[in-house]
Amino acid sequence: MVDFKDILSKCRGFQWYTGNLEKNWLKHRVSRLEIEQVFFNRPLLVAFDDQHSQEEQRFFALGRTEFGRRLFMVFTVRHDMIRVTGFSSPSLGDGRLVLDNQVMLLT
Predict the structure, then answer these.
(1) Each residue's pLDDT tens digit, 41-66
(2) Which whole-number Å values give the CA distances from 77 to 20, 60, 89, in the listed order?
(3) Are strands 70-78 and 81-88 parallel, antiparallel or unpaired?
(4) C-alpha span between 76 and 94 (Å, rounded)
(5) How many CB atoms lie within 10 A of CB 105?
(6) How far is the C-alpha of 70 from the C-alpha of 62, rounded, in Å?
(7) Residue 52: CA count within 13 A, CB half-sphere
(8) Cβ atoms of residues 87 and 29 within 8 Å
(9) Is the pTM of this model over 0.85?
(10) Mean residue pLDDT across the chain
(11) Contact at 8 Å (CB) between 57 and 76?
(12) Under 8 Å CB-to-CB from 29, ≥6 apart: which residues?
C-alpha cells in the first residue's frame, strides 16, 4: 500500500505553472491558496491514480478549503514539491469517481 502520509510529509511546498494560476481564477474562481489549503486540512482523502501513472506517479485528493469548499484534485510529487495538474469542485451526489485502488483517509 502506498504511504500517502509519508509522501506528503516529505514535500516542502508547491510547484505551479504560472500560466494556470490566472486561468484557474478566471474560469473557476479558485485561488492557489484555496487549492493549497486542501492539503493541510483534514480529513483529506488521497488515492493513487494507477491509470495515469506511466511516466510519473499521479494521485487524487479530495478535501475542503478553509471556507468549506470541496475540491477534487489530481497531483504529482516532483522531487519534494506538490504539483497540482487538475482540479474540480465536485457537486453533491457526484458519483462519477470510482476508486478501485488504494485509498487512504488522512486525519
Answers:
(1) 999 989 888 777 778 889 989 999 99
(2) 17, 12, 21
(3) antiparallel
(4) 24
(5) 11
(6) 7
(7) 11
(8) no
(9) no
(10) 82
(11) yes
(12) none
Dihedral of alpha carbons 69, 56, 1, 4, sign: negative
How high is the pLDDT of residue 94? Answer: 46
Task: Return the pLDDT at 28.
Answer: 81
- Whole-angstrom Cα distance, residue 4 to residue 8? 6
Kindly provide the residue ranges of all beta strands, DSSP E only, lying in the chain, ordered along the sequence: 13-14, 44-48, 58-64, 70-78, 81-88, 103-106
**pLDDT grade for 21, boundaries at 50, 70 and 90:** confident
d(CA 91, CA 70): 8
| Cα–Cα distance, 81 to 84 (Å, whole number) | 10
Tell me the three cell numbers of residue 84: 497540482
Please state whether beta strands 81-88 and 103-106 pair in parallel, antiparallel, or not at all (unpaired): unpaired
Domain residues of the chain, as ranges?
4-91+98-106
How high is the pLDDT of residue 101? 47
Q: What percent of the chain has pLDDT over 90?
A: 37
